[in-house]
Amino acid sequence: MSYPANDQEENPPTQDQRPEDEPLLGRAGDASQQDGQGIQFNFFLGTAIVAQAGIWILAATVWASVFLHDVILFSAHPLLNSAGILLTTQAILVLQPTHSPKQKHQGTNIHAVLNITSILTLIAGLVVIEYNKISHGGTHFVSPHAILGLITYIFFIIQALVGITQYYLPIVYGGEDNAKAIWKYHRMGGYVILILSFATVAAATATDFNKNVLHIQLWAVIVAAIITLAGVLPRIKKQKLGF
Fold first, then answer.
1. What gap in Å lies between CA 11 and CA 1, rounded to an integer?
2. How many CB atoms lie within 10 A of CB 54?
3. Beta carbons within 10 angstroms of residue 38's beta carbon
4. What is the DSSP string of 27-95?
5. CB distance 89 to 55 below 8 Å
6. Residues 6 or more apart whose Cβ sits within 8 Å of residue 164
């Protein structure tokens, strides 16, 4: 098993020591887990509290819209998919502030569990909608929401496979050095997929089921997505992306 790059950094970066390791917004160390600090605080450290507000607003918006109407088999689709995006956001937040080998190891394990759970939840959501369409003779992957959804599902699965193999099975890439060389792309891919997920939810507001039943407003999805990203993106450390 390997550890992420720069394992020698045992202490949080300071502005004098590693200015290039600052988060995109704020001072060096603002988005770093302190030595001896429980990893559970990573879910709220720095601007994470903003991200939590945004993603829970989105989830609550979807869930409330579903449960305010008669629950049918199709209801599981938006419930499961929104839960999957919620779990993915938590997986990002818990790992971002880690910097020491011990923190990275623990954070990566939690990150993996959350993302695997997210993938299973999303796949369940896909199975529900496909079963519903097959049983009712509906069309498949025609609407912008369906096409974006399919692309997002594929990206999620590829991202998970790459993340798991590069950390736990680096031999697949010819060794740890080769696996480490693509970590930055895995990190960048995670942020792209999160944005793509929000775009998919936004596209869902144009579907007939939403227009006729759920009535989730596009502006509500966009606002929740912006709030979430406003909490997630500033915690990105440029050095971890190779910049």
1. 22
2. 22
3. 9
4. -TTTTSPPTT--GGGGGTTTTHHHHHHHHHHHHHHHHHHHHTS---GGGHHHHHHHHHHHHHHHHHHHH
5. yes
6. 112, 116
pLDDT digits (tens, 9 = 90+) for 176-192: 999 999 989 999 999 99
Work out the widest C-alpha separation in the chain, in whole angstroms.
63
What does pTM read for this prediction?
0.88
Q: For tokens 């409330």, what's the residue?
A: 64
Length of the chain measured in residues: 243
What type of residue sits at position 181? A
Other beta carbons within 10 angstroms of residue 144's beta carbon come to: 14
Helix H or strand E segment including 17: none
Written as six digits, the tokens of 17 are 């020591």
Position 155, amino acid = F
